[in-house]
User: What shape does this take?
Amino acid sequence: MAFINENDVTVIVVQDGGELAGILSRFLQLEGYKVIEAPSPEAAVELSLDVHVDLLLCNMAASKGIELGQKMRAVRSNVPIVLITDSDDAEKEVFTHGFLSLRRPLLFAELISTMTVALEKPSPAQTGHHRALRYR
Assistant: This one.
């Protein structure tokens, strides 16, 4: 199933490496997203200060992703954050921070669906409260 990105959506992708490294960015580009690959969490935050970004996609350990998400929210409070991780234990903490979470192994249809929801929903900073969101 192909999803068409009719909007001009820019996604910063930060990855720890592993099996999805490179594949996520290429898939998103094929789906019509503008992708900026950040070589590190610190670079992702710096990039967000220089370019318009619509969504942050983190493919890393939950603790690193949460830390990056908090730093991103400090400089860009309205950017939705999607964290891909392989840890069920971290889901509660991820939700506490208002991020959306996907668990590996990942289905690309789930990724696009979750990104669409993240882009449509106001961020916790915009609404003034955090909601526990779980999309699978």
Q: What stands out?
A: The first helix runs from residue 23 to 30. Residues 124-136 have pLDDT under 50 and may be disordered. The chain has one domain: 10-121. The radius of gyration is 13 Å.
